[in-house]
Amino acid sequence: MTIQVIEGHKKEILEKISQLTGQVTRAILWVEDTVPAAPRDVAAILADLDQDTISAGFVDDSREAIYTRMEDE
Question: In Å, how far are 33, 45, 62 from 17, measured between CA atoms?
Answer without folding.
Answer: 22, 24, 35
